[in-house]
Amino acid sequence: MKRKLVTYISRGFVAVAAIFAILLFSPAKMGNAATASATTIDPKTTIAELLPADDPNATIVREALANAIDFNRHPVSISDSDTFQTLINIAPKIVIDKPMTDYGPLVKIANTLSGISIHWQTQLTSENISLILKAFGTNRPSRAFPAVDIDLSNNKLDNTQFKALVAALPVAFPKEIAGVTVNHNNISDFSPYLTYLRGLKKPGADTARLWAFGQTGTDGISLPKQKISENVLKIPFSLFPEYRDQAKGIYGGATVALRVYHGDEDYFNDSENMDGDSIVSTGANFNTALLPFASYDFDDPNIAIPIDINGINRLDAGKAGATTYFTQLDSDAWNELEEIQTKEPTYLTGALPDKDTLKITNIPAGSTAIKVRVITLILGGWGHFRGYAQTYKIPLEWDNPAPQPTTPATASSESGAEPVKAVTKQKVVSPIRKIGLYQQPTFTAKARSRWYPRQSRTQRPMFKVLGYAHSKNGLLRYRVKDVSPGAIDQSTAAFCQE
Hints:
Layout lengths: L26 H4 L16 H4 L5 H11 L17 H7 L2 E4 L7 H6 L5 E4 L7 H12 L11 E3 L7 H14 L6 E3 L9 H9 L9 E3 L9 E2 L3 E4 L2 E5 L4 H7 L7 E6 L13 E2 L3 E3 L4 H4 E3 L14 E2 L5 E3 L8 E3 L3 H13 L4 E2 L7 E5 L7 E11 L4 E15 L22 E9 L5 E4 L9 E5 L10 E8 L5 E7 L10 E5 L1
Parallel strand pairs: 1-2, 2-3, 3-4, 4-5, 6-19, 7-19, 12-15, 13-16, 14-17
Antiparallel strand pairs: 7-8, 8-17, 9-15, 9-18, 10-11, 11-19, 18-19, 20-23, 21-22, 23-24, 24-25
């Protein structure tokens, strides 16, 4: 029988080049600067006149213009002798990575830019975001590109600031904005972005895309309470807004996947997998970071028959440390399985579940809630994915009185992890790959104290093993101290994995 069922993620490429903007300023020093626009500035005004050298904030903007690129990513160094008309003609993209205390100089040129990226700022407020976006989008010259990229990465933005950013988008950019980047912040609620997308007349893969990986905020959004029976939770995929919107085509061909979330990091939160702190690269480990619930090749002569299909649309909450996301089977794959089950039932074992229902098994007894992490990915240019991961907290209501979990006498009630046990003989070890140190046995981004990148043998750090413990999910952790020559603090101990 020649049948082939392969579920996969398209590796097509979309040739989209982007630099984005993070826009920050102090309202106390902005005054009426946010109302300034390109139409009030004489096009013959030179950059030196517009951004005087005795103003340190203007100097930062001039330096960014000197290293600008155009919409096609070609270098376009703009000098002090160039004019405001030059900015209008070029519509440059600039990067500012020095803290500014007064954003008036940036506001003067904001609406001539086709993209701006500002990082490591310290004076960002919700009001600032709203004002700067208004300056960025108001009275844009006809030569300026309408599709704008804004990057607000690495600024410790929280949910309130993100909400203010999204609220300002339809006011500042009523026609089009290509993308918004907020990687490496403290955002845990992306629902304002979903509301904004639904309000667009023609949302698509190249419009208003969100880049928001590497967040430290893990609280997530609470969903309605769900009934659970015998440690198994059955919920519709449509419980998650991303799946509802995907069905309506709002994402323009995005991939949506999910996993049970134990607070552990995954491929999409690891900065080593980020290209320029902005986009996730499809590196060697990507193939195990995102998988379909099932992938079968019936033309493979080595395929084991019958095939167990009980794992389709099912997540195992008991697998601690499992960080792979799973995608829902598409209609073609599902129809193929149904046909095989009807015509060649001996090829399969188990029964196909409901197509639109997710089953989460092995939920610990006595759990009051479970967290599910939903990731939305859009394939960008050069094999990179853009998107974001949203954590959802699902309160649980047990059909019968839930059995209480048994807690070992040595367990910590605060962290759910075993106390540290000393080793009988301390030894010094050196990691051969990238390794992180954490303040507690249960690893989270918030608890991480630092990364140690992979090094050559002579440059590897040295750790003395002091003891061991287990995370709340039972994973072995070692308590170590950095004893490398020249280590900053040899008195502080932390946890790492084997």
